[in-house]
Design a protein that fits this description.
The structure holds two protein chains of two kinds.
Chain A: H1 9-16, H2 20-30, H3 45-60, H4 68-75, H5 79-94, H6 97-100, H7 106-120, E1 125-135, H8 144-147, E2 155-162, E3 168-172
Antiparallel strand pairs in A: 1-2, 2-3
Chain B: H1 3-6, E1 12-14, E2 25-26, H2 39-65, H3 79-99, H4 111-117, H5 126-154
Parallel strand pairs in B: 1-2
Helix pairs in contact in B: 2-5
Classes of the chains: A alpha+beta, B mainly alpha.
Chain lengths: 173, 155
Amino acid sequence: MEDGTYMIDDEFLSNFHMDRLCIMHLNSLVEDDEAFRSVYGKVGRQSSMLHIMVLLKFLVSYGNAAALQKIGHMMDVLKGLVNDYVMWACNAILKHRDQIIKWPDKEERRDISGRIRKVHGFVNCIGVIDGTLFPLAFAPTVNGEDYYTRKGDYTIKGLVICDDAARITWIEV
Amino acid sequence: MGRDKYFDQREYLLGDSAFSTSAVMIPAFKKGHNSNLSEEKKYFNIKLAKVCIKSEHCIGILKAQFQSLRGFQWIIRDKADLDAILRVTLCACILHNLLVEHPVTPDWFDNDIVELEQEDELNQSIEYHIIILAIYTKFTNKLFNNNLTILRNLS
């Protein structure tokens, strides 16, 4: 039940926007993390898998589907626990941040500029920068004016630098 | 400043006209109040847009794959809530990076999407997200394994 084996592959893909193998690999990356050790007596692979599935389900659902109740019901987790599950899994993954989102070193920069030069003709360019907005569904109750945008939404602002393969090399939120 | 740490000589970033020019930043030319751009500047902007499309792809893919980034169902009551949202966002970015393939230029770089990209982020239609996602899922999933193997060897 906990590792999602009851779902067929297509269901799995539409629920988590990733196929099963990906999640297995992701799980093997973080399963040793101590964030999963102290959780209600459940230890080991099964429980970390469940954490990751809850996190992914949370990340891929938009609007009403992201209600904690719905996710909890689907994953057979208590509604109040969903939030904790998301944060625990999140913390475990965030520990790998420096290895995954990193500024390219000298050689990588040379590779990137080489590829951009070949395709687009810009010499020595090592990345593209752009800002983006992550909208909030509800207005914040404190400091609301800091989140307000010219479009009338409340958002969190992000600044992203990525390379020619759409890989993020820098993010600031 | 840490400029030397991040940039070699003559290396720079490209961006759209929202950014200002500096030693490491080359933005697009802006149109003045009542003057139009010269032909050369227009040509440059078009060339630039073709590179900058990558950053739009990047954000488009990120938001298509992790749809909760398009609207957090979370009320910010204090600093801890804000922190939680930021962590979740970063987490999505990490997963995004794991899903991106390393060397090959993907073939979703075509002109139909370029036009859709011109719209503002918030107005992007759902159909557009679905197009990107469909093209994208074709090649991401199997690459995930490679990325993770590399990562595990590193650590």
